[in-house]
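[job 0412] stage=fold_complex status=start
inputs:
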Amino acid sequence: MDTSTFFLYLLVILVTARVCAEVAVHLGAPAVIGELTAGIVLGPSLLDIIQPGETIRFLAEIGILLLLFEVGLETDIRKLINTGRSSVLVALAGFTLPFVLGFLLAKLAFDLPTLVSLFVGGALTATSIGITMRVLIDLGQRSSREGQIVLGAAVLDDVLGVVLLALLYEFSVAGGITLGNTGKVLLFILLFFLIAPVAARLISILIRHVDTASDLPGLIPTAIVSLVLFFAWLAHAMGAPELLGGFAAGLALSRRFVLPFGIALRTPPEFFMRIEAQMRPIIQLFTPIFFVTVGLSLNLHEVDWSSAFIWAFFFLFLLVAVASKFGGALLTPEPLRQRIIIGVAMIPRGEVGLIFAELGRTSGIFDDSVYAGMIMVIAFTTLIPPFLLKTLYQDRPADSGKTGISDTKKPPSEGGFRGDDS
Amino acid sequence: MDTSTFFLYLLVILVTARVCAEVAVHLGAPAVIGELTAGIVLGPSLLDIIQPGETIRFLAEIGILLLLFEVGLETDIRKLINTGRSSVLVALAGFTLPFVLGFLLAKLAFDLPTLVSLFVGGALTATSIGITMRVLIDLGQRSSREGQIVLGAAVLDDVLGVVLLALLYEFSVAGGITLGNTGKVLLFILLFFLIAPVAARLISILIRHVDTASDLPGLIPTAIVSLVLFFAWLAHAMGAPELLGGFAAGLALSRRFVLPFGIALRTPPEFFMRIEAQMRPIIQLFTPIFFVTVGLSLNLHEVDWSSAFIWAFFFLFLLVAVASKFGGALLTPEPLRQRIIIGVAMIPRGEVGLIFAELGRTSGIFDDSVYAGMIMVIAFTTLIPPFLLKTLYQDRPADSGKTGISDTKKPPSEGGFRGDDS
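[job 0412] stage=fold_complex status=done
writing structure:
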């Protein structure tokens, strides 16, 4: 790709995302739906005018990392610990039920081979933290109790999904699973979660000291982006999903950060506000690129709309995908309304689901119709919940300006990174 | 390249650039020297641990575009018009003298073929706006009279350099130059300069209206970056250097913008300040990537240090490169001190020079030793002037906070994008 084409692609992605997001908000839908739609419009499903090269994909990855960083930054770790039991319950049920039900449905009702059925079940497990949190942020419900439960559960789900993917991949390549490898993957991920927040916290203290001592402006943008990239890289190196690196970096810089043994460290409010103010435009620039590329990666033409198999597959697995995520939510001791919200918020699959489907196709495990069915299920789980959540939250006010400093020029609409102005 | 490697590369580039910039400033050199050094250290000249792929190069291009945008944004167009005559004089002499002297030296003293000599002369013509303005910004002299003269001259030089490159390229491929093509290139560039600022101004008014009407935060980062990308693409499509698109977009959003026929349009200060505050972190993130990649693109190993030809070539052409840029500066009616500063500021070659050299090598016009000699000359013209300028400005105060709002948290050191704290 030459530079000029790249500029044009990036330009078209940014402008289309914004226009579609404005239309979506005007029609009463969350902005993220507009950005996903922009991808579907520009991609192979409709116009087919953007072929995202390596660079667009990398920029999209930075976008989702930064969104997770922001989610971490705005997380109150004590709330996360308070909601821990509910989160674990939601995550475990929301992982096990789709996997088992998906596997059984594929194996028994559709008579698919065992390995195919395992991949189908796996693709149904992981909740998309990015889409779920983005919708809650758009609705101003990031800091609500159910928001915290969903966040904790989605993080756990992502970890479990990646472990499962590693195991299934090994199984499909080697024909078996060794307990040693499974243990290693789990150990590394556990290590990452113990080390990362503490290390990120130490680095953030270093950044603050350099910032005070340095005469040179511009430290915060490069230092914070570097920190996020470092933990994404570290997460990957230790076998954890890269996204969790972004989340860990954000968590470590959040207002109140609790180390193990109850040592609480407060980020000085002045430093926290400068980080928030300077990172906000960067996050706002990169995140739409991610959601557009999710839309770009769906190809609705791959679906043979006249096949009965596809429709049966689609409806039954969509049912499983939706119902199975409610299982854990209904078990929690929350009020019914909250349980319903949690269940709905856990529905979107997104990235990890798509990675499962893609791996299934490229390794020859999925044939075209199973792949198309999976893609449709994933697409619908991603597109529907934002509307349901918006309806469920209709009569409830957004968190009032909890998410940090407001833009002094335009207080009501730029309170948070993506706005708490539902 | 996989995502994880990309994260690591970008991380290493950002961190090394910052560390080297801090060291440079500590040693009394401009920050940009540190960033160029970081590239030389990480690149083939020394450690050879970073092979910038397509993505890093694209990010670097965005970096230089945004820097030019910032230069345009901070430009007072009336000052630029006031200094117009001096700029034109400096540019014409600073273009003609290096080209003619370089050609004659190559042809007569080194007995090189005509086409090679033309390319050598061409590579010596274009002033690097990016490096020159960055140094003046670092020294807080962006808005000084000589800063404005250099800016105007560098813009003109870049246009002339690109026209010459187009002509020489045609000459080397087709064996001749048609007057029609030359006229077409010139006409398009002229058109671009007439249309671009007006169009950008109209778009910026549109952005302001959408910004007022929209409920969705995050308009400014995506809209302004899109605007810059659009004009870079447009400039390229019309045969002008892409950088000038970034400059035109910035100019159109500057505080006081004058249309032809003397119609002055003021950007509302509140809107201007929001653009500045929100674009600053994005610019600070991207620009170091550009300067690091300039360092990465130099390979000091390509120089056969024992060859007498290389040293003779290097010293004589360096002399021509330095002396010829003083020609125009000395003709201006400015005080002697200003004339010297202008002469020094025009010395850095950089991008366009490297493009000439690269085209010379890949088309087989330059052999290894001529290429290595050119690279050395370009490297020295880029590395030396920042030190000279810093010395020349030692006893003069920086512009005091002319460049817009200051970061309320840290007023003295973040007055401008890259700091006016010399």
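[job 0412] summary: The first strand of chain A starts at residue 256 and ends at 258.
[job 0412] exit 0
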